[in-house]
Protein: Prolactin receptor
Organism: Theropithecus gelada
Amino acid sequence: MKENVISATVVTLLLFLNTCLLNGQLPPGKPEIFKCRSPNKETFTCWWRPGTDGGLPTNYSLTYHREGETLMHECPDYITGGPNSCHFGKQYTSMWRTYIMMVNATNQMGSSFSDELYVDVTYIVQPDPPLELTVEVKQPEDRKPYLWMKWSPPTLIDLKTGWFTLLYEIRLKPEKAAEWETHFAGQQTEFKILSLHPGQKYLVQVRCKPDHGYWSAWSPATFIQIPSDFIMNDTTVWISVAVLSAVICLIIVWAVALKGYSMVTCIFPPVPGPKIKGFDAHLLEVTP
């Protein structure tokens, strides 16, 4: 009797599986965790790519544990980071601790797991772009005109405590140009540029980077029209003029030193002594 029940169960299961296969229903494909990012070292989010769903509704869950621990935890927040994501708030984020995580995909036909991913929050920091980029053309009376720009750090980052250090980079180009001109601004939130093309409309963007981590995305482009009477301060031209002048001076000095005697003789010839016809100069010598 027991054998008949087992046989009937196996047959039923095979029929079910055969029906599912005929309908294109399969276990879910293998998911992949492709990115983790922290905007400020205090929180972070991880995203995954789902595999194939096997033609059935599929549920996803992310589980993790910290290195040195055995207790598994499930993702605390599937909403904040958007679809297929897990967000870790401040209470779940630890610096200098490695998180080991994987994603589980499950449907009626079975389950599949992503590869384990090791995450250290210190090395996945990517801040938001800087804010409030302002660009102006300054034309002081006693100095050359220049392009002045100013911006603010991302709002999620607290720079006052010294816990976070940001470096900035600026890029700009004429509206129709293909190549960007890039300038490193260091930690300052102001910058000025002297050499620009008069009459051109420029696009300006700024981005930031922490001491450990990745560059942010570029800020939205800000447009500025450069006046036609904008005077360029071409440092290269002035340097070339200075070098050429120095070379000419050296050549002149060298030529004078080499031919100094000939030139003095030419300009100031020796004055001949007086000569009287029939007069012997030896007669003037004193004899003892």
About this structure: The two ends are 167 Å apart (CA to CA). Residues 14 and 97 are 47 Å apart (CA to CA). DSSP finds three helices and 15 strands in the chain.
